[in-house]
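=== Per-residue structure ===
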Amino acid sequence: MGIWNNTVASLCLAGLCATAAAAPAKPPPLPPLQTQRVTLTSVDAPGGKATALFGFWFAGKGKTPEKKPTIIAMHGCAGLYSSFEKDQIEFTPRYLAMARVLTDAGYNVLFPDSFTPRGRRSICQESLQQRIASSNVRRLDVQVALRWVAMQDNVDGARVGLVGWSHGATTILSAINLAQTEVAVRKVQPKAAVAFYPVCSGFSKARTPYKPAAPMLILMGENDDWSPPQDCEALERKLEGSDTSITLKLYPDTYHEFDAPGMPMHVRMDIPGAGKPGMGVTVAANPDARAAAYEAMLKFLKEQLS
C-alpha cells in the first residue's frame, strides 16, 4: 500500500528492526506507528496563491471516540524525512521518536510537510533570500493546520498545542505572535507551544513588542552556536511579568539538534548566516538533555492542555 494514498499506512524507524534481530538480548522492536496522509491547503504569502500541502496524522492512544488534545509539529530546515521514494518514506528518527512519545501520552499529532510540496527536501543550505518556505510563509501553514485539526471529530479544539524544531520552532514563534494581524484575528488559537532551539533574534530585537498568543517553553543547549541562546534569554526577560510568559530551559554541554537520536558531534560549514564567520556550527546528540527536555515538554503540555 503506497503512503501517498489517503489510507492508513506504516512508518518504521530505519534499521530498528534489523538491529533488534541482530541482538536478540535486546527488547523486541516497537511496533511501527500507524499514520494517515492528509491534505492541507495553505498559501505562499498573505493573500497569495494557494499551495497544496500534505501532512501526516498520528492518532493518540486511548478510546477512539474520545476527543483528544492535539499537537501540530513543525519540522526543521532539513525536512521530515531520512529517505523519500515514490511509494515509501521514512521519517527521521527525531520526528518518529516524537510521534511515538506524544501519541503514547494520548496526543493526536499532525506533521505538516512545508517543503516537499514546494519542491524542496531541505532549506538548511539556502540563504534567507533563497528560501521560498520562510518562517513567515510557514506561519501560514500553521494557521491552516490549526483550522484543519479543529474540524476533526477526535480533536478537542480547546486543547491544541504546537511543537517545533529549529526553523520550525522559529516558525512557531512567528505563528503565535499577536503583533501579526493575521495571528491576532485568527479564530483558532493554540493553548501551548514548545520550541526546540529556535532563532529568537528577530523577536527579541523587534521594534514592535513580541506578544505570544500562548505560553511557550523553549528548550535548547547552552553551547548552541547555530541558534544562540542569548537571544532567547533576552526574549524571556522582556516577557517577565506579562500575562503570557516564555520559559527557557538551557542544558549544559549541549549543542543544536541535541534531541536527534545518534547524531554524532560534527561541525557544519554549509549553513549560511549561522555561527561565526569561518567557524561553522556544531550539532550533536545529547541523550541526557534529550530525556530531560522530553520530560519538561510532557509536563508543560499536561499543565497547559489538561
